[in-house]
Records
---
Amino acid sequence: MDEGSFSHHFVESGPGYLRYRLTEDGVSPRGIFGNGTGLIRIDSHEHDESGHIEEDFDMRERMQMKRMSKLKLLEKAALPPTVHGNPKDACLVLSWGSTGPVLQEALASLGRADVALAHFSQAYPLHSSVLDLVAGARKIIVAEGNSTGQFARLIRLSTGRKADHLLLNFRGHQFSVEELAHGLERILLGGDAE
Amino acid sequence: MNPREYDVENVDMSWCPGCGNFQILSTLKEVLSELGLFPQEVVLVSGIGQAAKTPHFMKGHIIQGLHGRALPVATGVKAANPELTVLAIGGDGDMYGEGGNHLLHAIRRNPDLTNLVHNNMVYGLTKGQASPTSPVGMKTPVQVEGVFSEPLNPLALAISQGASFVARTFSAETELSREIIKTAIIHKGYALVDIFQPCVSFNKVNTYKWFKENTFVLQGGQNDTHDRKKAMELAMAGPPYPLGILYQDRPGRVTFEEQLPAYREKKDPLWKRRPPEGLISAFIEGLR
């Protein structure tokens, strides 16, 4: 994939054009209706390389592997988290979405150098750098606005690293700065672990 | 052009022998070739169902997408490239059930496309559950005591919403179907063609014989196709149900794509234009 160019994100379709051509990286050249002589056939059902509906077992396996290799590319292209502070051997607080700025303010009020923050503006797929990021942290805290720790589960599923503490708010409103600062302080003082 | 230009070879056919879909498929191939359209100029958009598989059994560009979502996708295709001939194809379940909301708003938007609905009054792909057009009293493996919901009247619905072109035919009336589908494709604006069609495996009520006995072909002069009120009367009539063009707007009505700002200054389809790469790159970089 040529990441730098938008104008070459499609090709002129020639005779024998295959919308789902099997390629090394899983990305097939994209034809556009009206541009070229080849027919462009797009299908939501399982299909062969031409887009024709097809349930052949081997083809099904190849197509599924093709899809999964595109996930690898997406992991590389995903937005990495914004890291504040030095996460190495630190107590790393993870958050996503609108919790981020509130958490940043709460951490500033605590003024601790051994606490770092990683904020995710894209929750899935996780950027490939996240594996090292969480592996290098001494302690992982996930702060998020739901009752089950959904992002903490996703982090564990994707990296194997279980959060040491969860800071959850599911009262129907956003965390307040004070609420987060107080919760973090309690955890850092060695309070109740989850 | 020879309709054989639209044939595809070595295809496993999933329709039952005797299915009305075969007649609709060959009629569609004939019409497109009569109009001198090459498969490269035609986009066949469908959702899910046996009727929605029609695009797989002929040449042309195709998008078979989500259940009930043929119309918004077809509208998008037309908006991205108004030079293409676009058809949205599916059954009564897909278009009137899962796609019911999209139908309402496609009619309002009035894109220049042709909507073929193979109406066999049953969900055939999933083996015989009641569809939005199944008659009251029809027993199925799910509606074991018989259907009790009122069937949807697609023609009356379309006319009441101001559809630009509304017609009904019967798959076995191949001459009539050919004329209607051809007129619908030529018509500029949204065109609904409801096609009565027997499901020989799963609908034992609405059979070939039933459709023959419960329909009649409107003769020339029997209706003024520009009169919405008269069309509504015909849409509400039956049995026997009238077959033919019930309503057609006079030429001149503006379409969805014609009103898009993208075509105000130039008519080129979107793919022919170069995007402002610098602006897009800067925007994406700003997010990193």
---
Amino acid sequence: MITAERKPIDEIREMIAPFKKVLALGCGSCVAECASGGEKETAMLASALRMAAKMDREDVQISEMTIDRQCVNEFVIQLDDVIDKYDAILSLGCGAGVQAVADMFPEVPVIPALNTEFMGETKGQGLWVESCLGCGDCMLYYFAGVCPLARCSKQLLNGPCGGSMNGKCEVNPEVPCAWQLIIDRLSGFGALDRLEMIYPPKDWSKKQGTGPRKIVREDQQR
Amino acid sequence: MNNISRLKRVLENGDFAVTAECGPPKGADPEVVLRKAEILRGKVDALNVTDNQTAIVRMSSLAACSLLKKAGLDPVLQMVVRDRNRIALQSDILGASALGIRNLLCLSGDHQVFGNQPEAFGVFDLDSIQFVQAVKTMRDEGIILGGESLASSPDIFIGAAANPFADPLEFRVIRLAKKIEAGAGFIQTQCIYNIERFETWLNMAADRGLTEKAYILGGVTPLKSPGMAKYMKNKVSGMDVPDDIIKRMEGVPKDKQREEGIRICVETILRLREMPGVKGVHVMAIEWEDAVGEIVEKAGLLPRPIS
């Protein structure tokens, strides 16, 4: 999932200050799972903004609405019926959601309420961790299901570096050394010999070759 | 002979090599580099110049190496993959060779969060092993990454680092093997205080024939105080300072502590000289270049074979 965290309320208030009628727009997908932009969080943010406006005697209308996916046009189109009532949309979607909404309604300012963070996993209650960079060329087979690009602080393909101590990363002793995890898993499978080969430099053109990446699937197009 | 690596000649002649570390200044004054050069002239075979060590902005390693080269010393250019992508790294190798710099130490580099630019983007486009391999291919085949030919090849004695004290121990030797297979001709190790652990690692390396395939230089750092010993033990990742070393430093009066630090360092060098797999020593006297001459002399390593 794509994870995000809500921006500080003061930053959000500053961005919406010029507008009188604002729609707080939640997203029911990834950001709902990571408890930053779902229906509940949207209601909480909208009411916090209303309360702050009231305290400051500002004449502002904050409404709320949540759609299933802000990053898919079929869902964004639902805004067609209501968009005229607002001066601006405060999106609680990820960066992709904000841009999908902005793209569909060029005349309406769309303001991000979240900081989009990473692709990761829900590890427990209130705990999300990064595990994928979206590099476009998955190497998890070689590294026993632990990605050194996403999880090693130095993105080493031939690690670990000299800072791995007691299974922890030198950058932060709270962080497990990805290479220790790789070695432990590979040795569990009897596949430690995979570490003997020298992995060549990564082909980053698959991640950042020529502007934003695009997937075109003709079999999916009608 | 100005254009041949002195370090390489000393090692190939079978002499026990001595290198030391020269940290460039946090400033643009060339005299700081040249002063350190004068302190170390004649005491060592080659001088490592660190590359923004601990991720703190300093005079560029390449520039400082060029100053040392002009002053008649044999610099070892340290380059980290933290700050430069493969285009910049390969370009700097060509530039270094053009300036007459003949030794290179390829490193990952201390992570940027440790230094004074924690907001910097960490590049890490290549890792240190891929970097060694890229330089070897440039030198031996005249080819850069991606397969294009060079008009002329760089002439570089390639080195890499090894940390026998980081975890996991078994993999430390695999990693050494990978660095040597990638093309490292010499290896400089992390500071050695735990000689037993170092010897275990060295024996494992010798069992794989690695001590015959590359020249291993043991790293040593003279301690200035028990505080420094404790700091290295507790705060510097990948550093192994046994308690008896700390006790020794604590057991002498304050005004004798530096002397004791030098004594421990000399004893370590003498132990290293007895190990057949060790072909030299790398003295990292951090901001204490004055100590190097005394250490080298007391270890019986003066005069140097090639002046």
